[in-house]
Amino acid sequence: MLVARNLTKNYSNLQVLKGVDVTVEKGEIVTIVGSSGAGKSTLLHLLGTLDTPSSGEVWLRDMNLTALRGNALADFRNRHIGFIFQFHHLLPEFTALENVCVPGFIAGTRKAEVRKRAAFLLDTLGLGDRVDHKPNELSGGEQQRVAVARALINTPDIVMADEPTGNLDSKNARELHQLFLDLRDQFRQTFIIVTHNEELAPMSDRQLVMKDGKIIS
């Protein structure tokens, strides 16, 4: 479903990625692991079109994402790729429901439909009684679940997560790990996850180990 070919990324004279190939099938959970500075987050950002490669291509749904620009790229990203970050990036003045709805509103989906799906997702993720709470009224684990629901609101082809458990305690981290597995099983949701977590990585279908800007296994 997702194919990346010969991705490189240079910052001035520093080559961060050195010809990386990645293939991810629908319904897979793929983790990217490796030491700090190996290029994991850079690779994730290129796969998610948050940054552009110096060379190479990224394809999703038979679409060459590296050929898209401007509004066309932003629209495709919003509709087809979900994002989860270490820090939840929830809007503090919005409720949980409103935060989840934002990407759906941006996509132009009918507001009633977006709200209905947002409520369904929050209920599915165990937050049915927290929809009207603002971020400062939620625990860290609850905030991250809101962020997961937000990533899923447009029924994306793939969700990309950058250290999603890095800001959680061990209990909430384990619960989030299980949530990813449940979403894969229930919705055939595809995930690419950058992580240092030694419990999460082995739970994935496949691990990509990075070192010095390359995938070594």
Automatic annotation (TrEMBL):
Keywords associated with the record: ATP-binding, Cell membrane, Lipoprotein, Membrane, Nucleotide-binding, Translocase, Transport
InterPro entries the UniProt entry points to: AAA+_ATPase, ABC_transporter-like_ATP-bd, ABC_transporter-like_CS, ABC_transpr_LolD-like, MacB-like_ATP-bd, P-loop_NTPase
Sections of the chain in a coiled coil: none
Gene Ontology cellular component annotations, sorted alphabetically: plasma membrane
Pfam families xref list: ABC_tran
Domain ABC transporter: 2-216
GO BP terms in the entry: lipoprotein localization to outer membrane; protein localization to outer membrane
CDD domains, per the entry: ABC_MJ0796_LolCDE_FtsE
GO molecular function: ATP binding; ATP hydrolysis activity; transmembrane transporter activity
Family membership: Belongs to the ABC transporter superfamily.
Record's protein name: Lipoprotein-releasing system ATP-binding protein
Native organism: Chitinophaga japonensis
